[in-house]
Write a structure and sequence with these properties.
The chain has 3 helices and no strands. It has 68 residues and is an all-alpha fold.
Length: 68
């Protein structure tokens, strides 16, 4: 897999596919309009952000362990 079709961006951040992000935003807006919780809750989304931040923190510190 190459380029934007695969959503790859490790070597080229501009190659990251944003389609799934768009779908997530649309789902949240739809949930608000329908008066319901989004399919993926804010708490679940926060876990992914926390993990990504830990990966960057570890990389910044020569692979040191990061407690979540």
């Amino acid at each position: 897999m190459k380029g934007q079709e695969a959503g790859l961006g490790a070597n080229d951040p501009s190659a990251i596919n944003t389609y799934q992000h768009q779908r997530n935003f649309e789902e949240v807006v739809t949930a608000i309009h329908e008066g319901r919780e989004p399919t993926t809750s804010a708490n679940e989304s926060r876990k992914a952000v926390e993990l990504i931040q830990a990966i960057y923190e570890s990389a910044k510190n020569d692979g040191a362990w990061v407690t979540l």
